[in-house]
Every structure is written in C-alpha cells, then in structure tokens.
Protein: L-ectoine synthase
Organism: Mycolicibacterium rhodesiae
Amino acid sequence: MIVRTTDEITGTDRDVAAKDWRSKRIILAGDGVGFSFHETTINTDSVSEFHYRHHVEAVWVVEGSGTLTNHETGEEHPLAPGTMYLLNGHERHRVTCTEQMRMMCVFNPPVTGTEVHDETGTYPPAEPVR
C-alpha cells in the first residue's frame, strides 16, 4: 500500500515547476503500478502547448477555468471543474488558463518524474521500469 500527501511531496524532486505550471507527482513509474498520477496547477492568464506522443494522459479539472484547443482538429473545449479530457490519440493541444486551474492527471505509461518537455511539448519515450 502506498499513502502520500501533497504536503509531503511539496519541495521534493516530485514537485516539478515550469514557467506556467506546477506538477506534484504523487505516483511515478518507480512505484511499479503501471501509471503515474499527478496534481497539476496551471497559472492564470497562461498558454501552454503540449504533445504527449509517447503517453496517454487523462485530465480531470477540479478547480479553475480555461480552454482546451485540439491542434489536430481546431476544436476548442471549455475547461471547468468536472471536465475530463483524454488524450488517447496523442493529440497536440493547447491549454489556455483564464482562472488558475488545478487538475488531476494520469499518465500511461507512467512517467519517471525526471522528464522535461522538449520544444514541441513532448516527453521522451518511457524508460523501462527498473
């Protein structure tokens, strides 16, 4: 059994921040459960580009608001508490945040926690779990 709190993750190597977002990585590949689980906060008035070519991501919005743009189709979707989106087709996408958002995210395959987005917003392919 694994029990963790976001308070104990804050300020550790599981607490990863970039210019416009912060990700508290609660479950990672090294935990050996086949997925990773994150609490992500996106700053108000920010625009973030992502493209998870090697991962499927499910996102559940629990606070805030914004817009999700699917670059593959041009479709836009409002984001608000209770909204879930699943990037099951590895879609290039943009998140425009109008009110600070807090989201719960699941990645498959799991991330290790050391990934950095490249210039296209992509994480590298998952490494085998050791």
